[in-house]
User: Fold this.
Amino acid sequence: MFLGTYAPKLDDKGRLILPAKFRDELSHGVVLTRGQERCLYVFPEKEFERHVELIREAPLTSKAGRDFLRLFLSGASSEIPDKQFRVTIPPALREYAGLSRDLTVIGAGTRAEIWDTSSWESYYAEKEQSFSETEEEVIPGLF
Assistant:
């Protein structure tokens, strides 16, 4: 499970050192793809395959399903971490997420997310207040 918040740097070659706590789950391979809110999703390969199978179950007649599948898969990049646990983030994905040198990597349960630090800080500032004031059941059965 991916948990926590980390602040790695993107090197000049577009590489990121994976947080130490994520390495066991990601050491055999990762899939990077476009995420929502202009971040990148980082999946272990098997988890990515599970998501693809779920998406493929959407009816072919569903325009939203086709659109989501196209964008999700067309941006996907399979990577194997090197001996220093670095992965290269392809230029198109760096551009999509607006990544600069300063990154924030967060754990999001079954995946990690890579954010440009300024984008993460803006997102967090916008959403934290409503999170702390939540009065209704957002996720059924959680609280």
The radius of gyration is 16 Å. The CA atoms of residues 97 and 142 lie 30 Å apart.
